[in-house]
Specification:
Length: 381
């Protein structure tokens, strides 16, 4: 995401396409969407190599579905931004010739829809205006948001101490201890990453990978420390990087009460966490030096499951079959991950063979489709 949020580099495209061939892609071939672009129907978004065409730019507040079709030659991603490039919702890794429906709950105000061919840069943007008063919140929806926000706040608060410990180890020049602390310090972040990403300025400082950066941008955050720790760099110059990471996790904890959350965004966030698994963890590119990808994988799945838990009473009352399916698929993903668990966490991901990665990919793929329906189900419950 450019410039205020983490981009996805083109290098991710090849592993993703290989993974899709192995496990089956969750997007579907591009087809016309019924009623797309008509009043009251889905809002069609045509993404191309140099275009982002939105069929309606004057929308009514409430639940909106964007029916995205990628007619370009490259993998793309689509974002809905509020002012200040705050991410309202997103869908990454939409392959050429495929479609995806993205459901979001919009309140009155100005937004931008951005298509990002190659998953880099600011993207091609279209202004959208939303008017009208949103209906009063249902008490069950308010409770779901309250429960999820409380859990996110707990995780954000828990992230501070391990990052401080990581900073102290870096400052002391104790690379061995810092390596041991690195993966645990990321667990809370990885479980709540969609909320953290909504504060667009924090994510690139804290979690950008070196290949994510445009020319002239500063490499900082966890992955700058990761590279130094696993390539034997002198740690003294990295102390300011570790100091800034401490400030950033503290800021994240302070900003959670102001995060814009709705049942729809919580459900969409659960799917985003699973997308993180598919596009970064299973491919092994998230933790390129430490190979601690399975720790992140587990945290992403835990975060997605907690989102489901918060939404469970709301969704179960209207779509109990979806909840039952999701519970079963989450159990399958956890079972697929279990053989790689150790007393101290998980095995190094570079020891996991290609066939084993395919098995993990298949479990993730099976969960992906029903999870993609959670946001819409929560918003319409």
């Amino acid at each position: 995401m450019r410039p205020l949020a983490r981009p996805r580099r083109p290098a991710a495209v090849l592993p993703l396409l290989v993974l899709a061939a192995l496990a089956g892609c969750t997007d579907v071939p591009a087809e016309p969407v019924a009623a797309a672009g008509e009043d009251g129907g889905a809002v069609a978004v045509r993404a191309a190599d140099d275009a982002c065409e939105v069929s309606r730019t004057d929308l009514t507040s409430g639940i909106t579905t964007f029916a995205i079709t990628n007619e370009g030659s490259d993998v793309t991603e689509v974002y809905v931004y509020a002012p200040g490039d705050r991410i309202v919702t997103e869908k990454e890794s939409i392959g050429p010739g495929t479609s995806y429906e993205l459901t979001v709950d919009l309140t009155e105000g100005s937004y931008q829809v951005a298509c990002k061919p190659g998953m880099v840069g600011d993207g091609v943007r279209q202004d959208v205006r939303v008017t009208g008063t949103t209906a009063p919140a249902d008490p069950a929806a308010e409770e779901a948001v309250r429960a999820y926000r409380a859990w996110v706040q707990e995780q954000a608060d828990l992230s501070v101490a391990p990052v401080e410990q990581l900073r102290d180890a870096v400052a002391a020049g104790d690379a061995e201890r810092a390596r041991a602390l690195y993966a645990p310090s990321r667990v809370p972040w990885e479980s709540i990453e969609p909320v953290a990403e909504s504060f667009g300025d924090l994510d690139p400082r804290m979690d950008a990978r070196e290949a994510d950066l445009a020319e002239g941008e500063v490499f900082s955050g966890w992955h700058r420390l990761e590279k130094a720790l696993w390539t034997g760099e002198d740690l003294a110059p990295l102390v300011p990087v570790a100091d800034q990471l401490v400030l950033d996790v503290r800021e994240l904890a302070q900003r959670v009460p102001n995060a814009a959350l709705t049942p729809t965004s919580i459900g969409n966030g659960a799917k985003e966490l699973l997308d993180e698994v598919a596009t970064g963890k299973i491919t092994g590119e998230e933790e390129a030096f430490s190979h601690t990808d399975l720790v992140d994988f587990d945290a992403n799945v835990t975060g997605a499951a907690r989102a489901l838990d918060a939404l469970r009473p709301l969704v179960a009352a209207h779509d109990p079959e979806l909840v039952t399916t999701l519970d079963a698929e989450f159990a399958d993903v956890r079972a697929a991950l279990e053989p790689y668990r150790t007393a101290g966490g998980f095995v190094s991901y570079d020891t996991v063979g290609e066939e084993q990665r395919r098995e993990l990919a298949r479990a993730v793929d099976a969960l992906s489709e029903p999870l993609s329906r959670l946001g819409a189900a929560a918003g319409r419950a």
